[in-house]
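May I ask for a single protein's sequence together with how it folds?
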Amino acid sequence: MAQKSEEQFPPKIAKPAQRALAGAGIASYQELAKKSEKTVSALHGMGPNAMAKLKAALSERGLSFKKE
């Protein structure tokens, strides 16, 4: 069953950030929530705009980055 458009991962973020997530093997919000904000922000291609969108998308789903 296909996901609804609002459930697509990742949210509309820049291609380098999308590649960074894919390269790190992060393919869902549940997987993203297992990572710390520091770890994800350190990925090559992940900028502040993408991090803000990811944080907001996690929050909308009742999730958050892993606490360090």
